[in-house]
Design goal:
Mean pLDDT: 87
Distance between the termini: 103 Å
Strand content: 15-25%
Shape: rod-shaped
Largest sheet: 2 strands, antiparallel
Number of helices: 1
Number of strands: 6
Helix content: 40-55%
Radius of gyration: 28 Å
Order of helices and strands: EEEEEEH
Length: 111
């Protein structure tokens, strides 16, 4: 027997959120997903199986979740990189300050 076929005129998902957990985050974060609209699922083929319709609705949801998670983790990585650079520059500035202080002390001791 042929499985039932359906046409979904419009699938809309609004105000969806996903909880992102990662070793790079101090705690899980809730991320807002972009609104998703899929029109005319199965219309071109005279209907989609339930499985095909579910896949057509879930693929954009998963893509939006991947995108939101990727953007957030890239921001965390950029922040971590800038923190590491800032720490390195602070260390180098401290070394330069110490070196300059030592040279000033040497010059003062000569005078």
């Amino acid at each position: 027997a042929e499985p039932g076929r359906i046409i979904v005129k419009r699938f809309r998902l609004s105000d969806a959120r996903v909880l992102l957990t990662s070793e790079y985050l101090s705690e899980p974060e809730e991320l807002q997903l972009r609104d998703i609209v899929v029109d005319d699922i199965g219309a071109a083929t005279g209907g989609a199986t339930y499985s095909e319709a579910a896949q057509a609705m879930l693929q954009p949801v998963l893509a939006a979740a991947r995108s939101a998670a990727g953007e957030r983790l890239k921001a965390v990585a950029a922040g971590a990189a800038s923190d590491a650079v800032r720490d390195k520059l602070d260390e180098e500035a401290d070394e330069i300050e110490k070196d300059v202080s030592e040279r000033i002390d040497e010059l003062l001791d000569r005078g």
